[in-house]
Amino acid sequence: MGQPENAGEQASPGSGRLPPGQREQRGWPVTHYGPVPRFRPDRWDFRVFGATADGEKKSWNHAEFSALPHETVTSDLHCVTRFSMIDAEWGGVRARSVLEMVPPSPAVTHVMVWAEYGYSANLRLADFSAERAIFATHRDGEALTVEHGFPLRLVLPHLYAWKGPKWVRGVEYMTADRRGFWEERGYHNIGEVWAEQRHSYQEEPGDGPEL
Ligand SMILES: Nc1nc2c(c(=O)[nH]1)N[C@H]1C(S)=C(S)[C@@H](COP(=O)(O)O)O[C@H]1N2
Ligand SMILES: [Mo]
C-alpha cells in the first residue's frame, strides 16, 4: 500500500471508471472548511520555500504568476465524502513546471501545499510530480470562481480532493513528512483514491508520521 512507485498516473486504471465507493456528481458543489477568502491582488503572492536546491526562496506576484505558460489537463475530482466530478479540463501551471522553475534539494521527499487561513496538505514528492498535477486557474476554459478556489487551486487526479487546496499561496519543500490540516484530523496521510485511503486508522506502518 502506498508505494511511491504506485504514485501518480498508474494509480488510476483509466478514464470512464469511477473509483471504488464513489458516485458521480452532476454539477459542481462547493465543499470546504471555513470562510471563502477575499482575493486581494496587491497582497497575493505564490511562494516556494523550504529545502530548495539553491537554498533561495522564490515568489511570484499575481501578474507574474498569470504570465507563466498555461497548460491544460483533463482529470477528475474525488471528494472523500464520496462524490466525484468526472472529466473536467483544468488549466493553469503544472506542478512539474514549479519543480523545474524552483528545483528542490535532492533531500526533498515531501511537500506541504499552503493555502489562505493556514489550510495545508502534505504530499509525497512523487504525488506532487504526477504528470497531471496542476495549479489550476481555470476549469473548462473559465476562470475559477472564488468559491472554487480563485485565483489558484491544486488538482491531483489520483488523490482525494482535500489534498488539493483551494486558494493556494505556496509550496514548502520538506526533507521529512509532516501532516497537513486534514491529515492531522483523521484523514489518511497519503489519500490515494483507487486504494480508498480515506481515514488515518487505515494507515499501515510507513504511510505517515505518528499521530
Ligand atoms: N483551502 C481549502 N481547500 C480545500 C478545502 C478546504 O477546506 N480549504 N477542501 C477540500 C475538499 S475536502 C474538497 S472535496 C475540495 C472541494 O472543491 P470544490 O469546492 O471546488 O468542489 O476542495 C478541497 N480544497
Ligand atoms: Mo472533500
Provide an overview of this structure.
The chain has 211 residues and is mainly beta. It has a domain at 48-176: Sulfite Oxidase, Chain A, domain 2, CATH 3.90.420.10. The protein has helices at residues 62-66, 95-101, 125-128, and strands at residues 23-24, 45-50, 58-61, 71-78, 83-94, 110-115, 120-124, 134-139, 142-143, 153-155, 168-174. Strands 1, 4, 5, 8, 9 and 10 form a six-stranded mixed sheet that branches. A five-stranded mixed sheet has the order 3-2-11-6-7. The chain is globular, with a radius of gyration of 16 Å. Bound molecules: ligand MTE and molybdenum atom.
SSE topology sketch:
Blueprint: E1 23-24, E2 45-50, E3 58-61, H1 62-66, E4 71-78, E5 83-94, H2 95-101, E6 110-115, E7 120-124, H3 125-128, E8 134-139, E9 142-143, E10 153-155, E11 168-174
The structure holds the ligand Nc1nc2c(c(=O)[nH]1)N[C@H]1C(S)=C(S)[C@@H](COP(=O)(O)O)O[C@H]1N2 and molybdenum atom.
Molybdenum atom binds near residues 31, 80, 81 and 161.
- CATH topology label of the domain at 48-176: Sulfite Oxidase, Chain A, domain 2
Structural class: mainly beta
Q: Largest sheet at a glance?
A: 6 strands, mixed
What would you say the CATH architecture of the domain at 48-176 is? Alpha-Beta Complex
Q: Low-confidence segments, ≥5 residues, pLDDT <50?
A: 1-13
List keywords for this structure.
211 residues; mainly beta; Sulfite Oxidase, Chain A, domain 2; 6-stranded mixed beta sheet; 5-stranded mixed beta sheet; 11 strands; binds the ligand Nc1nc2c(c(=O)[nH]1)N[C@H]1C(S)=C(S)[C@@H](COP(=O)(O)O)O[C@H]1N2; binds molybdenum atom
